[in-house]
Amino acid sequence: MKLSVIIITKNEADRIAACLASVAFADEIIVVDSGSTDATCDIALQSGARVERTADWPGFGPQKNRALDLATGDWVLSIDADEQVTPELARAIGQAVHAPVADAYRIARLSSFCGRSIRHSGWWPDYVVRLFRRNAGRFTDAAVHERVVVQGRTATLDGHFLHDPYASLEIFIDKINRYSTEAARSAFESGRSTSLLGPFGHAAWTFIRHYLLRRGFLDGWQGLVLAGMAATGSFYRYVKLYQLGRER
Question: pTM for this one?
C-alpha cells in the first residue's frame, strides 16, 4: 500500500523542515503552497517533496482538497506545517496502512504554547481524522475549521502529533484576527446573525468554558492566556458578524 502525505503551506520556512523530516517514511509528499514569500518552497523541494503553487486562497478546506486531488497513494496522511509525527505514531501509521482495520483513523495532537505542553484547556487529546483511504475521505469546503468526511469506519491510532501552533504571541494574535474574519464571513453566508450584546456573552462563556470547565487553570499562566485569547477570538468573530449584518 502506498502512502501520500499532503501539506498546505504559506510562509512556513521556520517549521516546514521538521515537519517534512517527521514524515520521510511516506512514499510521496505533496506540498501545496499559496504564495509564500520566504524559503518554504525551496526547503520543501530540497526535502524531496513535490511542490505545487496556487495563485489564490480559497480557504482551508478547498485548499486541502486541491492537495488531496494530487495524491496518488492508496492512503493519505494530512498534516499541517506546524505538526510533527512522533516515532510511535509513525509505527502506528505504517501498521494501519499495511494491515488496515478501518477506512480512516483519528489521531491525537499534543499541542504546546509558550514552552508548555497543554494537557487541559480543551487542547488534549484533540483528536483529528488525518489518515484515510484516498477514495474514502474528502475535506469539507469550510474556509476554517475544515474536517475530513469519511465514507466507512473510523478507528483511533496509538501515538500523537506534536503540535506547535503559535511560534509567538504576535503570530497568535494575527491568527485570531484572520480566523475570526473568515469564521464571521462563513457564518454570515450561512444565514447566521447576532445582536450587539452577542459578542460579550459569547466571549464570557468561552472564557468560562476554557478556564474552568476544561480546567485551563491547571495549565499554569499559559492556560489563563489561552482562555483569554479564546475569549478574544470569540468576541472578534461575533463583532465582525454583527458588523456584516449591519452593512447588509
Answer: 0.88
Number of Cβ within a 10 Å radius of residue 123: 22
Closest CA to 74 of 25, 130, 135, 154: 135
Q: How many CA atoms lie within 13 A of 228 on its CB side?
A: 8
Three-class SS of residue 164? coil
Domain positions in the chain are: 3-163, 169-247
Residue 186 in 3-state DSSP?
helix
Return the bridge partners of 107, or none. 128
Name the residue with higher pLDDT: 144 or 164: 164
Residues β-bridged to residue 160? 108
DSSP state of 213: I
Residue 105: its H or E element: strand 104-113
CATH superfamily of 3-163: Spore Coat Polysaccharide Biosynthesis Protein SpsA; Chain A (3.90.550.10)
* Whole-number average pLDDT of the chain: 96
